[in-house]
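Q: What changes when flavin-adenine dinucleotide is included in the input?
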Amino acid sequence: MNSNYDFLIVGAGLFGSVFAHEVTKHGKKCLVIDKRNHVAGNIYTENIEGIDVHKYGAHIFHTSNKEIWDYVNSFVEFNNFVNSPLANYKGDLYNLPFNMNTFYKLWGVKTPAEALKKIEKQRSKFSHIKNPKNLEEQAYVLAGKDIYEKLIKGYTEKQWGRPATEIPAFIIRRLPFRLNFDNNYFNDTYQGIPIGGYTKLVEKLLIGIDVKTNVNYFDNKNDLNALAKNIVFTGKIDEFFNYKFGKLEYRSLHFENKLLNIPNFQGNAVVNYTEKKIPFTRIIEHKHFSFGKQPKTYITKEYPDEFSKDKEPYYPINDKKNQNLLSKYQELAKMHDKIIFGGRLAEYKYYDMHNVIERAISESKNHI
Ligand code: FAD
Ligand code: UDP
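A: The predicted holo structure follows.
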């Protein structure tokens, strides 16, 4: 192994790979390691029966930043997939995000004026809530009782494993609410899925860079540190500091996968199950992300799960308690000027892919 690297990059996910690519372009030498047996982190896709399967949950790329859109398209071509999930509540199907199709199904209203009247009436019952303190209050103010009870409450409480009154309001603020028949889940200008899968995007980012998979940083920290002048750490920040102040909490998931001998299971990439008593939150049918015509289909049921040592830390829980703990680790991190902490786990932030790319590019500029 070359012992003269500028950067040891812990984590071959999107943050580590973009950072590595950017500094390599400017003549720096990087070693990227990952404890998993593959690159790409949570955006890893695997081709099964000709279908790109999103192994760590469905990923749809969306951004309004043209530079970021051009950036990812310079490595792989993207298709024109538009995410239009459905919600199944007690056997009935509703369009998401909340739009005229949803309102029509809920209340039979046919025009924006009729819908607005109905929504205002629903919202007016909660006009006393001026500053929503939690997700339940936020949902009442935004959407009223019917939508909250049928499409939000059950899904949210399953997803986060706690009552909606204990979940921060910001989580629901990103859901669009529209008075037209547009089922596009995102408000962004650009959207799509890489043709050939996300793994291809990451492999392209890492061309010409030394990469070692199946290497856990903590198994051999001192030897690995000795290989490079600087470290980019994209794993869990609390683990980096050996849980000195305590453990940050995460929400995890587990997946139940099935290859079915039929061409089409649900006719859509994503169907959410918003009822509390159904234990999974959604069923993903992967082929629909790429308009697949294969004779078989691959589906995944996504079950929210408590996080524990051997499970994947998928979602940070950005409540007050965890934010306070995070601040302590961030203070400690500031004292390590040769270590860059970046990405979803090291920053303990609910980042989308385009956010992570922006962050990695901007961080790389401080080091070239
Ligand atoms: P990661 O992908 O987690 O990469 C970190 C890497 O570090 C991992 O590969 C890990 O194995 C490695 N690592 C950790 N510790 C060590 C160690 N000690 N030694 C060696 N390696 C280590 N974003 C969107 O834009 N659109 C979506 O539709 C979308 N859907 C999502 C759905 C789910 C279920 C989840 C969980 C996330 C979703 N995201 C989505 C967010 C997206 O996954 C992230 O923004 C992105 O993958 C974060 O990249 P990262 O490099 O920060 O983290
Ligand atoms: N949500 C909901 N019903 C749905 C879909 C989403 O109540 O059918 C809420 C839920 O609280 C979730 C949040 O909206 O945590 C954000 O949803 P999004 O689909 O953006 O989450 P992600 O894809 O990141 O899991």
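Observations recorded in class: The first strand starts at residue 5 and ends at 10.
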